[in-house]
Write a sequence for this structure.
């Protein structure tokens, strides 16, 4: 039996279905991210697990126990909010100790656990400081310590890094993952940041319109997206139309003047999703999809190109390894391998 199970979990607000029959399980010690655009139902799902929102249907089972029969304060869950929700009139140590006081933990044990947790998040020297005198990153650590000190069965994180600047957010991602691995706490993160979800998670649940489009390890979801929505949401991607014909049991796929042999699929027309970083500029005389560079943007460690082709505008990412780069207006040829493509039949909805 899985540690946490969501069984047909549904939430309706009037005629609107916010969460639509979710079924998935989380193993003990796992770090799972609920990833998706605003309004996809990820925060509502987290709130139902926490007990802040009552499900319209379905079950939430934690370690064999029906959580809907348990008051939110007794579920043993720790939560970190986007706003941190720190008490401004309390010091760092007092904020962290608050949950233990509510549990009526003895003073000596409370002080010991607060000190241990502040050390874990690197705030031992800030125990007597008030939130208003701390940076955003420090406040985020206080909120995390307050959630961890009660030794939660599950740690719930609701966009906890979204208020930090890019550099600090990246640093906190590393720290958060290290802390989670050290403690082995089962963790569920809600985020709309694709890079954050992939950097932190053991698995990612990509949500759209209240449903899970794909639940997989980050590498699998990125390299083998279940559909066009997942492909487009997890980073940049190109969607190209292709035609196919059977060739000795395989499928010969054609885009422009180029073709590739791929595993056989039903149909004659297909959609191909292709990551920009998998596309190369073919040397003079080589085969490839011809095009003209319309935009060239330098982004530090890589160049981002928009290339106009007969199959539409294609995005290309080329790592900055020195040497000349194609200029705007240059005629180029684009190449990639069959393994770089995700192929699915084009469904005729007419």
């Amino acid at each position: 039996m899985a540690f946490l199970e969501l069984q047909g979990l549904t939430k309706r607000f009037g005629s609107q279905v916010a969460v639509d029959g979710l079924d998935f399980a989380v193993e003990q010690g796992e770090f799972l991210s609920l990833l998706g655009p605003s309004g996809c139902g990820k925060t509502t799902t987290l709130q139902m697990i926490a007990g802040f929102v009552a499900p319209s249907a379905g079950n939430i089972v934690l370690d064999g126990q029906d959580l809907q029969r348990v008051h939110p304060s007794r579920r043993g869950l720790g939560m970190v909010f986007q706003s941190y929700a720190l008490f401004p009139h309390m010091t760092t140590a007092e904020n962290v100790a608050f949950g233990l006081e509510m549990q009526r933990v003895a003073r000596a044990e409370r002080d010991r656990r607060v000190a241990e947790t502040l050390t874990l998040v690197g705030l031992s020297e800030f125990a007597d400081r008030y939130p208003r005198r701390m940076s955003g990153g420090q406040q985020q650590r206080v909120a995390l310590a307050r959630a961890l000190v009660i030794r939660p069965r599950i740690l719930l994180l609701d966009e906890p890094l979204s208020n930090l600047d890019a550099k600090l957010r990246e640093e906190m991602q590393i720290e958060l993952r290290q802390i989670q691995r050290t403690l082995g706490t089962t963790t569920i993160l809600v985020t709309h940041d694709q890079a954050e979800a992939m950097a932190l998670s053991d698995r990612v649940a990509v949500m759209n319109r209240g449903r899970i489009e794909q639940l997989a390890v980050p590498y699998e979801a990125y390299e083998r997206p279940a559909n066009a929505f997942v492909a487009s949401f997890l980073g940049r991607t190109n969607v190209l139309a292709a035609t196919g014909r059977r060739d000795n049991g395989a499928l010969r796929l054609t885009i422009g003047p180029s073709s590739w042999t791929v595993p056989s699929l039903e149909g004659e027309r297909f959609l191909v999703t292709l990551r920009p970083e998998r596309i190369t500029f073919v040397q003079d005389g080589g085969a490839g999809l011809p095009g003209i560079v319309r935009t060239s943007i330098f982004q530090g460690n890589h160049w981002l190109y928009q290339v106009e082709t007969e199959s539409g505008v294609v995005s290309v990412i080329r790592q900055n390894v020195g040497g000349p780069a194609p200029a705007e207006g240059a005629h180029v040829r684009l190449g990639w391998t069959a393994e770089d493509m995700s192929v699915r039949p084009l469904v005729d909805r007419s």
Q: What stands out?
A: Residues 227 and 288 are 25 Å apart (CA to CA). The mean pLDDT is 91. The longest strand covers residues 16-26. The longest helix spans residues 166-183.
